[in-house]
Amino acid sequence: GAVVSQHPSRVICKSGTSVKIECRSLDFQATTMFWYRQFPKQSLMLMATSNEGSKATYEQGVEKDKFLINHASLTLSTLTVTSAHPEDSSFYICSAPWGTQETQYFGPGTRLLVL
Amino acid sequence: QKEVEQNSGPLSVPEGAIASLNCTYSDRGSQSFFWYRQYSGKSPELIMFIYSNGDKEDGRFTAQLNKASQYVSLLIRDSQPSDSATYLCAVRPIMEYGNKLVFGAGTILRVKS
User: Which residues of chain A have pLDDT under 70?
Assistant: First the structure.
């Protein structure tokens, strides 16, 4: 299977600061990557689709100015949470599709805690 | 609206038994179906995918797909305590949806030793 990495794995920041999360496909190229958010004991929620070389596509209700996505290369997508607030504390997970069935492979996730 | 439904559980089975996890979906044109396992505090990991009607086996896991009835299931044979996790069903709807997946909320499985 394909390997997807995320960095950092855990981050604690003060309210009002911005946090950048990186998602990398290690052994394959991905023109598309997906960003999810998961609150404790809740299901995965798709936030946006990251498209290499073009603008990200955001799901309904997700603020594009707050969650900035940049897909600058075929192996890297970044999610920046701008002016983070405690309610943004969550588990952020990226995925990238690979293979004939475009199976999504998930990164290990980034746990964000905003104080 | 494209939906994927799963019983939230928890489903409790004794060690060594067969665990049966079910999932229904609303989009009749859905093409591919995936099962992921998610341990507490971790990200989902792929168990297997299926896209043709019938059964597909991989080790202790068997995925079953019935497109006419719009359901997909996952059987886990010889369940082990290490199988205790949340199992997510994911469906890829018709192609115009791109390659996004629609996830169910997951079924919690508990295997008791």
Answer: none
For the stretch B32-47, pLDDT in tens is 999 999 999 999 999 9
Joined tokens for residue B30 = 């859905």
Sheet with B61-66, strands from edge to edge, namely B4-6, B19-25, B71-76, B61-66, B54-58
Determine the Cα–Cα distance for residues A111 and A13; give it in Å rounded to an integer: 11
Interatomic CA distance for residues B105 and B109, integer angstroms = 13
Contact B100 A49 (CB under 8 A): yes
The C-alpha R_g of chain B, in whole angstroms, comes to 14
Mutate to test the interface with A, among B7, B30, B43 (most CBs of A within 10 A): B43
| Strand-by-strand arrangement of the A67-73 sheet | A4-7, A19-25, A76-81, A67-73
- Summarised one tens digit per residue, pLDDT across range A45-67 is 999 999 998 999 999 999 999 99
Q: Which residues contact B10 (CB under 8 A, 6 or more apart)?
A: B107, B108, B109, B110
Of B43, B105, B106, the CB nearest to A106: B43
